[in-house]
Specification:
There is one protein chain. The chain is an alpha/beta fold and 224 residues long. The strands form two sheets. A six-stranded parallel beta sheet has the order 3-2-1-6-7-8, with helices on both faces. Strands 4-5 form a two-stranded antiparallel sheet. Helix 1 packs across helix 4.
């Protein structure tokens, strides 16, 4: 059995689900559009530049969620999935995942976007294992606004992937081949540890690194 890990945003999806969730909240009028639009754009720009403070960002994201009852959040998320995410799930992404699943590989999504946003997306993609930053919740499931554990961002993806594998008494070395598909240079810490890093729809920094090191480059959405 091999291991196949996938980033989510701009890797399996041609959009950033976290950013789109913020845009969605503005469109349906649940947050102050003027204030939230600037914050959302600033956080996204920092992520693209590799300067994001993931703890501060997640506290911002979870703080926004904590303003609303979980039942209401889940209803909005169903609407978000139908209107925004489902139209962005491409045949090429499904085929890539299916290729690894058919081969009997252990497949997981490893994303910096929080689990509230991404868990339904992973299910829609048919992926059973999701490694993402979790919000703290009360006993009845309400989001408190706090972050549990370290963010799954940059080196944090290595920490959480190792911890997940340890729950099955495995490590990266347990697999003959380990793949990681990602679009971003922010994911280099984990890409450097797998046997098969694959730059997928890569940004400029990752393209340069992949080219210099002879890594394969996959432009997944060109196949549409």
């Amino acid at each position: 059995m091999n291991l196949a890990l996938f980033d989510l945003d701009h890797t399996l999806l041609p959009v950033d689900s976290d950013y789109e969730w913020g845009q969605f909240l503005m469109r349906i009028g649940t947050v102050d559009a003027d204030v939230f639009k600037k914050s959302n754009a600033d956080w996204f720009a920092e992520y693209q530049a590799g300067t994001l403070d993931p703890v501060k960002y997640l506290e911002f994201a979870f703080g926004t969620l904590a303003q609303f009852p979980r039942k209401q959040l889940d209803a909005w998320h169903e609407q978000f999935m139908a209107q925004v995410i489902q139209p962005q799930i491409t045949p090429a992404a499904r085929a890539l995942l299916q290729k690894h699943q058919d081969a009997g590989d252990l497949v997981a999504i490893v994303t910096a976007t929080n689990s509230f946003v991404t868990e339904p997306i992973a299910k829609a993609l048919g992926v059973d294992f999701l490694i993402a930053s979790d919000p703290e919740t009360t006993e009845d499931g309400e989001i408190t606004g706090k972050l549990l554990d370290t963010p799954t961002y940059g080196p944090g993806k290595v920490v959480h992937t190792n911890a997940w594998l340890a729950t099955m008494d495995m490590t990266l070395a347990s697999f003959p081949r380990s793949y990681f598909y990602s679009d971003s240079h922010n994911d280099l810490p984990l890409m450097l540890l797998v046997t098969d890093p694959i730059a997928t729809n890569p940004n400029a920094q990752l393209t340069a690194h992949a080219t210099a090191h002879g890594w394969p480059i996959l432009n997944l959405f060109d196949a549409q």
